[in-house]
Amino acid sequence: MVQFLLNRAAKHWRCPVLEVCGAILLIVSPAWAAQKNKKADKKASVQASVPDLLLDGGRKLVYERNFGWERDVKPKKGFWARVVDVVAGPPEYHTLMRPYSVVTDSRGRIIVTDPDAAGVHIFDFAQQKYKFLSRQEKGKNSLFSPQCVAVDAKDNIYVTDSESGKIFVFDANGKYDRMIGALKFGEGIFKRPTGIAIDSVANRIYVTDTLRNKIYVMDMQGSVVQTIGKPGGGEGEFNFPTELRLDGNDLIVVDAMNFRVQVLDKSGNFQYAIGKIGDTSGAMFRPKGIAVDSEGDIYVVDGLWGAIQVFNRKGELLYYFGGRGTAAGKFQLPTGLFIDRSDRIFVADSLNRRVQIYRYWGLPKQAAGGAQ
Amino acid sequence: MLATAAHTPAQVTVGNDVSMNMNGQISAGYTGDYGNEIASDHGFTAGGNATLTGSFYTPNFLSFQVNPYFNQSRDNSTSSSISDSSGVVGSVSLFSGSNYPGSISVSRTYDSLGTFNVPGLPNYTTHGDSDGFNVGWGVNVPDWPHLSLNYSQGTNDYSIYGTDTTGTSDYHNFNVHALYLIDGFNLNGGYVYNQTHAEYPLILQTQQLESLNNDGNSYSFGASHNLPFHGNFGANFNRSDFTADFSDGSYTGTVDTVNSNVNFHPTAQLTLGADFNYTDNLLGTLYQNIISAGGILQQSTPGQSSNSWDASGLASYNLTKHWILSGSFEHRDQSYFGSSFGSNSLTGSANYWNRFLGGSLSSVLSVTRLTEDTSNLSAVGLLSVVSYSRRIMLWDVSGTGNYYQNTQTLLVGYTTSGWGYSGQLGRKFGALHWSANAGGSQSLLNASPGYGYRSQNYGTGLNISWLGFTGTYAKSSGTGLLGVNGVVTTPLAGESPLPTNLILYGGHAYGGGIGINPYKRLTITFSYARAFSDTVSNSVGSQNNSENVFGRVQYQFRQMFFNAGYSRFVQGFSASGTVPAQLNSFYVGVERWFNFF
After folding, report:
1. Concatenated DSSP letters of B488-516
2. What does A69-80 look like in DSSP terms, one character per residue?
3. Angle at Cα B154 formed by Cα B149 and Cα B159, nearest 5°?
4. Smallest Cα–Cα separation from A331: which of A344, A343, A320, A316?
5. What contacts A117, CB < 8 A, 6 or more positions away?
6. Poorest-confidence range of A134-138, A363-367, B248-252, B385-389?
């Protein structure tokens, strides 16, 4: 049958009216079908209800939402925008491929690193804008595998690249500014930079070099002013340190293969550690991201169990939430974690390709100061 | 067709075990065609293509892919066709996750473009219809012989723009192969049946219709086994019987060949090896080579027995990490027309690689001394190859050159000589990148300097982020054989009594292109190509030329592409007695990509 039709077509069979009508049918019908598919995609991102977690003293943890692509920040489309979508197809939206680390800046923008996309996503829900940062240059000056991200007081964005061994700095508008840690011939001074935190008051950058088991303290120009730690399992020693956070005068470091979190002061002096290896609640098996809420409690992501455990400063487990799964409130290999000044908790849910947001309602609410 | 495509999304639900995806492009617009080989017309047209992939149960059980396309030309799509070609290609894979994997593929095309080759020059353009069918199956049961069976058939009917002649070919092929590993022996066997029929186009010779019917059966089996000192021994036997009927005669023959080899690596640096080869029909082997290259036998020499055998030994030693030295000895014995020809050749060669003046240098030098037993004639052959590349300041420079004088024996000893060179040069000037390349080669039979081929080519390119230029020039000449797909260069086979009909060819071609990307989604391309050639066959000369002009503007908005294009195509052959073909077309329209489901 198809051959017969093709044969007829090949013989230059032409009826202009039918061909025009056919062309319109061809273009419009599949477009509606495509639009139908997009509606299905949209349904998939509708937030499912996750019960609130009620805690002691009237505190509670509330699930807010998740997001995974550029479309999530865009406003609801009007009639004519939908018509254009049907005729010309929807725009090509950026999607989270494997979100790893997350942070927010002073404008409330959510900044997410994505090693698989070799770039950084900026979601601005307030302004309903999105931006994707990347850097593709010949040689070794490209952003290959962005890991962790931090912002300074001017909202400049600092991204560690574990593959090139450098730190890429973008200004608040997303324009590439400079590289930190680059040596001659394009090599980086770090073996595998991962965690990063900025002390904008002291003008210091803290970077963990996971393979060297050290934390580098640099000035804002990238000159190393101090190194903290050495390989080992003792106090102030590290075995593959990854993420770190600054909280007041505390420097909190995930000491991944010692299965603990070490709390140092900014000069690198050991204060205390929490956590132990194990597969029970309160123990750590694959500690990943770390954050501190307005009450000073420490949140630690465990990638293997897909859960976030909350400890007080004595190392006692207060509660945990999450669990492995794909539903809202569940995680598949969660990695990065960030808590903003409003106690909104952002979790990079890497294999579910999304960021999930909770809000912690503590007593009293909104204590001064937050992470970063 | 239109209705079928438009309602395709509603037809995808076939049970719960079928999963399918389909995407494609649909175009519609206003087009005009005019020229002397087509009916001039203009009006609205629609075209498109689609890719349907899917599986039943799991992809390891059954998977399929279908690619229909309709009215595809380079004006309204990314197709390079100047005709509005249509067709469908489909394939099915069965049981790919089992021990009995199979596949079936089918294709049918209408008004698709093809090429008629002239060595070293842009090919001439043909158009026509073709179809193909292939089915293959395998049996891979553990501990049992692995079997693979394949059957294929197809036809191709075409005409060459600028002539009133047509060519046609069809083929049927069946083959079965078996592999079996037992007690360290790797055994293999196979059977191949091949049947081809071809009628050659008459653009280069006006006397008569040339045709070829070829039938052949081939049986083979062999064995190999590992030996001590990292060694390996292998032997193969092959019997081919074939019949070739061509315009001026026919040839029927059987060729038996035996090949064996043994090699050892007693140390990491040292390699030793030996080969033995025998054929009981040397002439049949030569005829097979010509026929498989697409050539025509003008007359045959049946009833003559011929055979040959040769034995050789090789030793190679890695002297240092920069030097490899090797030597070989070969004795060849051939019998033809009741006469025997014997020859001995001794070869020594050296390979050298090292850093040199900041760059990379590699070279090969090989010397062969050939002595004929019967005539006591001797000749010396030489092969030298030198390559060098380095970066000089901001310039990327690389080049290679070779020269050879090759002594061989095929019924008689003969010498071929040739040279070749190639070079590339490139540099960045800020955002601008410039590159140039040149190459050339020549291969001649020393006893008949007109017998061989030579070619030169030059090119340059200039690129910045939004703009690119290219320019090319090529020149070529030599002797060749007429094949169903064009002219193929002749094998340099000495003063052999090969009954072939030679074609003398020569020509030059030039072209250029420009690509502009002024805005992110706006692309403008333009290209121009011109080719001239002269061919002489059976004292009939032909002056041939072609011209190709193509311009296109494309703007992308999401999944829509707004296209405007113009193309002009001219092709002519003076010996054909017809005026050169001219085709012109323009197109303004829109193309939309869909992910249907």
Report:
1. EEPP--TT----B-EEEEEEEEEEEEEEE
2. BGGGGSPPP-HH
3. 160
4. A320
5. A94, A96, A97, A98, A132, A134
6. A363-367
pLDDT tens, residue by residue, B445-467: 777 767 788 999 999 999 998 99
Q: Phi and psi of B578, rounded to 5°? A: -115, 160
What distance in Å separates the CA atoms of residue B49 and residue B64, rounded to the nearest whole number?
A: 17
Query: For residue A265, what are the contacts with CB-CB under 8 A and spacing of at least 6?
Result: A249, A250, A251, A271
Residues of A numbered 27-46 whose beta carbons fall under 8 angstroms of chain B's beta carbons: which are they?
A: 27, 29-31, 33-34, 37
ipTM above 0.85, yes or no: no
Interface check for A48 against chain B (CB to CB < 8 A): the answer is no
* B596 with A12: Cβ contact below 8 A: no
Burial class (CB in 10 A: 0-12, 13-18, 19+), A1: exposed
Helix segments in B294-371, DSSP class H: none
Query: Edge to edge, what strands does the sheet with A214-219 contain?
Result: A193-199, A204-209, A214-219, A224-228
Structure confidence by residue, pLDDT tens digits, B465-519:
899 999 999 999 988 877 767 787 766 554 454 445 678 889 999 999 999 999 8
CA dihedral B496, B498, B504, B505 (to 10 degrees): -100
**In sequence order, what are the beta bridge partners of B15?**
none
Q: Does A77 touch chain B (CB under 8 A)?
A: no
Residues of B with CB under 8 A from a CB of A: 1-9, 26, 28, 39, 41, 43-46, 48, 68, 70-71, 84, 86-88, 108, 110-111, 557-560, 592-597
Tokens of B202: 């008459």
Strands A237-238 and A230-231: parallel
Q: With CA atoms as reference, report the closest residue to A361 among A58, A98, A149, A134.
A: A58
